[in-house]
Amino acid sequence: MKILFTSRGDSWDSEIDPRFGRTEFFFIYDDDSEEVQTYDNRDIANQAHGAGPRTAQKMADYKVDVMVTGNGPGGNAAAVIEKMGVKVYAGAGGMTVKEAYQSFRDGELSEF
Amino acid sequence: MKIAIASGKGGTGKTTLATNLASYMTEREKVVLADLDVEEPNSGLFIRAEHFHSEDKYKSKPAWDSEKCTLCGLCQEVCNFNAVIRMVDDIMVFPKLCHSCYACSELCPEGALPMEQEKIGELNHFRGKNLDFVESRLMIGEEQAVPLIAQTSEYVDQNLPGADLVIMDSPPGTSCPMIEAVKDADLIILVTEPTPFGLHDLKLAVETAEKLDKRHAVVVNRFGIGNDDVIDYCREKGIDIPAMIPNDRRIATLYAGGDLLMIPSVQEQLERVSGYIRRIREEVAG
């Protein structure tokens, strides 16, 4: 299963970025292959409008099964994510990616 | 002559000045009061006039025709607002993000994104003695005030060309809605309060007026609170302060009751603003 975390950096110790549309990085972990991929999304700061749909579209390239984030996506992004069939788990704001992964595994995060 | 009543900071007294000034000036001439703060129009709370006309207002947005579409993706490339997104085998349109620029629609090689109309708000026109009051109200959930502000200004231009004076109650701030509201004004009156917060946002509004190359003046409201920094700033910049409305509990009481400020201390300040406007008008005309 491929899990995408919205994060402020590209390591397991990076903090979760609570925002979806304007997240600074994607941290993607495939727990079958144990491979990590990251994507630097910081260009999004230049988008005055529609950051949500834009980031959601970028996320589609990675074909993930689950997303773990902080506040949860806004309406526009949620519509795109729903189309992709990705399950969203929110409430990981303030955690590191490692902690968020553990919380997700332990079933402590709620489905958005 | 068109006068925009604007401010950087919200809640400084734009509506207070716009409604009272409009009413004061109807004693001598034909006035149009346009409430262009379409996200929260409130001039109407103070104006007693007969309903004259209503109309719905629309904006254009693309509607996807899946039969004609080849999923080439050109539409999302040309959209500056991420309002059109290709996702799997769909083109998703986000009407709230769309700025009605027509780029996707015009450039689509298959004609698969025809523009359609969507209602965004309502315009109402009221008539009183020497007064035409026009206000528009953006529908709840709509994000873009600009198209409705533009159409409201157009309505005034087309339907009320004979007015001696158009007073526009503008949205607060210095972003797109404010710019749209003041861009056709001959004079911008910036209302501020004499506090550090008032001064901070006044500076932004003055910079905006300067960038737009618009004649501007300042009316200080709630004069007596805060400090002299706003007055010093205006003096340094050479900005006229035609009037200062005193900080007075009676004003708050009348305002809260939806009444115009028929008290001598305010009427005296309105006379000053009205004299200032007449002088500018002669200059503009001469």
Describe this structure in words.
The complex is a heterodimer of chains A (112) and B (286). Chain A has 112 residues and is α/β, with parallel strands linked by helices. Chain A has one domain: 2-Layer Sandwich (Nucleotidyltransferase, domain 5). Chain A contains 3 helices and 6 strands; from the N terminus they run βββαβαβαβ. Chain A is globular and about 35 Å long. Chain A starts with a strand and ends with a strand. The model of chain A has no long low-confidence stretch (mean pLDDT 94). Chain B is α/β, with parallel strands linked by helices and 286 residues long. Chain B folds into 2 domains: 2-58 and 121-285, Rossmann fold (3-Layer(aba) Sandwich), CATH 3.40.50; 64-113, Alpha-Beta Plaits. Chain B contains 9 helices and 11 strands. Chain B has helices at residues 14-25, 74-78, 103-107, 146-159, 176-182, 196-211, 229-237, 249-256, 264-285, and strands spanning 2-6, 31-35, 50-62, 84-87, 90-93, 115-128, 131-138, 165-169, 187-192, 216-223, 243-246. In chain B, the strands form 2 sheets. In chain B, strands 3-6-7-2-8-1-9-10-11 form a 9-stranded mixed β-sheet, with helices on both faces. In chain B, α6 (196-211) links the parallel β9 (187-192) and β10 (216-223). The chains are: A alpha/beta (112), B alpha/beta (286). The A-B interface holds A 47, 49-54, 56-57, 60, 76, 79-80, 83-84 and B 76, 80-83, 85-88, 90, 92, 94, 96-97.
